[in-house]
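Let us practice reading a record.
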Amino acid sequence: MPHYSAAIDQGTTSTRCMIFDHSGRVVCFDQKEHDQIYPKPGWVEHNPMQIWARTQEVIRAALAKGRIDPRDIAAIGVTNQRETTVVWDRKTGQPVHNAVVWQDTRTADICAELAREGGQDRLRSQTGLPLATYFSGPKIKWILDNVNGAREAAEQGDLLFGNMDTWVIWWLTGGPSGGVHVTDVSNASRTMLMNLCTLEWDADILKLMGIPPAMLPAIRPSSALYGKATGDLAGIPVSGDLGDQQAALFGQTCFNPGEAKNTYGTGCFMLLNTGHQIVPSKSGLLTTVGYKIGEDQAVYCLEGSIAITGALVQWLRDNLELIAKSSDVETLARTVDDNGGTYFVPAFSGLFAPHWRADARGVIVGLTRYVNKGHIARAALEATAFQTREVLDAMNADSGVPLTALKVDGGMVVNELLMQFQADILGVPVIRPKVAETTALGAAYAAGLAVGFWPKEQDLRANWGKDKEWMPQMDAVQREKLYTNWKKAVTRTLDWA
C-alpha cells in the first residue's frame, strides 16, 4: 500500500519535487533554480532542456533525501508556471526556440493587430481573457512566424506545443518514445485558445492566430490518469495536472463558491471560486477554469494576476544590491515606521489586473531627501499589498460576493510585516495555512484523488490547518489615504512605453 503522493512544481525561477504523506505533510523535497534569459528589454526566456534536466535532478534528490522507494508513491502530479510556451520537435524532443515566458512582452504587436478588430476584449466571451502578451496563443504565433521553418514543420504535424505542464508530462512519460501529449483544463484556459463553455480548442481562434490544431495537446481533467512515468519514477501513475495558481486554490481546499486564496510568488495571483458558473468580468479580471476532477463538472474562477511582487524583492537584491538575500527585505523595511511618503509601482512588464496596460513602466514616486533605503524596501513590500487590494476591489465588484477572509500562500507569506500590512489595507483577516507550499500540495492532491489515495475531496479539507491569522489594525481613514496615494502613483506609470 503506497504511503505518499508526489508533485513536480515547475515554477518561474525553480523546479521542485515535493513528496507528501496522507495527511498532506511535506515528507521531503528538493529544489533547483534555472537560468533567466533576457535577450532584449521586455523579453524573458527559459531553456526547456535545462528545465527537464533540473526536473530529473530534483526527483532523484528528493527520493534520496527522504530515502523513499518509488514503489511507495501512489501517484505523481505536475503543477507549473502557466502561459510559458514551448514548441518542440515530436521526433527528437528538441525545442525549436527557448521557452517564451509568461512575463515576456514581445507579442505586443501581435496582440495590437488582433485587437484592431473588436478591441482588447475581442475574444473575452469565448476565452474569459483580454488580448494581452501574458497568454500562450500569441506566443505560439510569434514562434511560428519568427523561427525558420517552424510554420511548415507545424503544418506537417512535426511540432508539438505545450505550456510547461505538457512539456514535463511528455518527457516524464517517455518523451520521443511514447510520451503522452496532454494538458488539463486549467492550463488550457490560459492559452487564449480554449473555449470556456465547451472546454475544447476553439477552431475559429486557432484559424485567427494561424495555429495548426495538430500541434496542440489533448485537454484532460485536472485529476485523471494520463500515463505511467518512466525513468526514476518508472511505473508510477502520472495523474494530476494543474496550473500553479489553480493548484494553490486546490491545495488551500477552496472548494466552495466564494472561497478565495492569494499566492505570493514571483507575481501575485488571487483566485475566487465561482462554482460551476462562468462569471464574465467587467472589472479587468480573468475568467478561468479552476479545476476539473475526473468526470465531475468543471469549477470556474475569477482571477486577478499581478506580474511583479516577489520579483521586486529579487530586483532589490540582484539589480540594486540593497539586500544580500530576499529574506533581508523585512529586516530592512522594519528600520522605518512607514513608507516615508514613497510609493513603488513595479510595472516592469506593464500592468496586469485590473489595468491590462502594456504601456506602463515602473516608477518610484514621492521621493524626498528624507527617504532612505528602509523606506524603499517598505514601499516595495507595500506595493504587493496595494496591488492585491486593487484586485480584491475588482473581485467584489464582479462577483457581488464580499470577501470575508483571505487565505494566503507562497514564498512571501513568511514576511510578517507584509502580512500585517495586507490585512490592514484590505480590512479583512489574512490567514496562513500550516503547509504554505499549497501549489505542490494541490498537484499531489489531484494526482492522489485520481488513483484513490484520497477517496474524495472532503478528505482533503480535514488536512487543512491554520498556522497564523492577521487581523486588520489600521483605522479606515488611514487605510483610504494610503490607498488613494497608491492609485495616484499608478497613474504615473501609464503611457510610458
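A brief commentary: The mean pLDDT is 94.
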